[in-house]
Amino acid sequence: MVATLNPPQKRLTTQTAEIAADTITIRSLDWDRDRFDIEFGLQNGTTYNSFLIRGDKVALVDTSHEKFRQQYLDLLTGLIDPIEIDYLVISHTEPDHSGLVKDVLALAPQAVVVGSKVAIQFLEGFLHQPFERLVVKNGDKLDLGKGHVLEFVNAPNLHWPDTILTYDWGTQTLFTCDVFGMHYCSDALWDENLRDIEPDYRFYYECLMAPNARSVLSALKRMGNLGEVAQVANGHGPLLRHNVAELINRYQVWSQEQTKGEKLVAVFYVSDYGYSDRLSQAIAHGITKTEISVEMMDMLGADQQEVRELAERASAIIIGMPPSSGEKAQEASTVISTILASVGDKQLVGFFESYGGDDEPIDPFLTQFRNQGLTKAFTSIRIKETPNEATYQLCEETGTDLGQLLSREKSIKQRKSLDSELDKAIGRISGGLYIITAQKGDVKGAMLASWVAQASFEPLGVSIAVAKDRAIESLMQVGDRFVLNILEEGNYQALMKHFLKRFKPGEDRFEGVKTQPASDGSPILIDALAYLECEVVSRMDAPDHWIVYSQVNGGRVSKADALTAVHHRKVGNYY
User: How many Å apart are CA 550 and CA 553, to the nearest integer?
Assistant: First the structure.
């Protein structure tokens, strides 16, 4: 029986439910949140899930976001006297899950904080108070009594370096925090409707887990030592019970695909310093769109042998600027020295500022690597103000450009490998000429397209094939809105030439182009023959494209007698 508290018209609500024997979830529902750490948008809000396990001893698994402080604490103290809480399990220390740790410890000072070594170190850094602690490593167990034996699984880099998973042998429940989660807010406690949550589950994986695909596979392998997983108590979105095996297997399949790339980019960052982790994730997400493998490594606590092996294997190295003073600076300096000693002259290197207030300058490091014979991968990313949507777009597009550069040789080989007659035959499929324009917040995008077709009568709908490595792909998620600008035969050359240019990361695609805003703010090209205002309904995963089906909500023709520009090809292995 699910008990929903607070009036539904309020946009911050809470919910409790018994999910297994002696196990209660406390869910904080954030209905209106439309950004998460800025780097990717949310269409369906999010939740922050916490759990209470009552054996002979009591464990609280994770807390909530600080915006829910009073609601969460009132609910927790209504369920249990905090003095009865024996353990506070920290899956990881990101503020949306540990934002109320200090408040909980104020009510339950006797509680022993359970976490990975890195998590305990992070907590010391922001709690600034003594607390009882229990550092756990992979395979360690904690017996709460009444059959509730908790076993811990190390899962570093999913998606923070301090992450652990917790398995309750008594209820076969796996507590996973970010892993197997999604930003999807609804009153539904469980994953009954797989179709509803699939897009958000995949998008969440692509943004946070794909850049750490090797770490995902390592964690899945460690999970093999656990018993059957009957349900997943994740940290965001509905809990998993009805589709557990399917959704866990998708992580396996997606991660195996992600790590198949012949080339690898190593991204080094400094956790809990400035915006290093978030900026590195945005860059890594851009790279993964090109099917180039990525491996991320926190420079704090990194094993030097692992640093050396990763640096030697990588085709490109990306480094986030560490602080110039303090303990973190010393650790990061050791890592960068190891990288320098391991790289060769056929590799690429790039740098980004962390905006931590004490960044090492980029140029001396760039000089050292170039003296080793490495080639500059991209224009160094220098952050002059608090990172915003445009900053993250710049980082993502920088990553995508690098991935395209590394995969160029393979792409050319694939084009040449197609049978010439088949190639010519497929090339006879014609299409129109269109420009897709979109805006989400401060981020704008545009793309020339020809693989467009009407897909339904009622409601009116269109399908568009969008290459996975296109920048605008991030603005065409389910629920996003965009404009399909239809070009005019005999009057399309100027627009086509402009949008065929290779824009620099973060560059304004619309400079010098006449536009007017659509109802959702997306640019309408004034010189287009017609336009359609569209909303993405679903996306089908094809090998190298997303097939985006969208409902058409409005449109207009500027010249009733003019014809749509037609695009004829001679070969089918290129646009």
Answer: 9
Cβ(258)–Cβ(210) below 8 Å: yes
Residue type, 73: L
CA distance 17 to 1: 6
pTM of the complete model:
0.81
DSSP string computed for 204-265: HIIIIIGGGHHHHHHHHHHHTTS----EEEESSSSBBSSSHHHHHHHHHHHHHHHT--SSEE
* Closest listed residue to residue 505, CA positions, set 406, 403, 435, 400: 400
The C-alpha angle 244, 250, 256, rounded to 5 degrees, equals 140
Q: Which tokens sit at 104?
A: 């909980």
Whole-angstrom Cα Rg for the chain: 25
pLDDT more than 90, % of the chain: 76
Q: What is the per-residue DSSP string for 462-510?
A: EEEEEETT-GGGGG-STT-EEEEEEPBTTS-HHHHHHHHS-PPTT--TT
> 258-303, pLDDT tens digit by residue?
888 789 999 999 988 999 999 999 999 999 988 899 999 999 888 8
Considering only CA atoms, which of 473, 476, 468, 475 is closest in space to residue 543? 468
Closest CA to 400 of 291, 327, 543, 296: 291
Nearest to 62 by CA among 96, 18, 36: 96
Side-chain-facing half-sphere of 354: CA atoms under 13 Å: 24
The number of angstroms, rounded, from the C-alpha of 29 to the middle of its chain's C-alpha atoms is 20
Q: pLDDT-derived band of residue 417, with 50, 70 and 90 as boundaries?
A: low
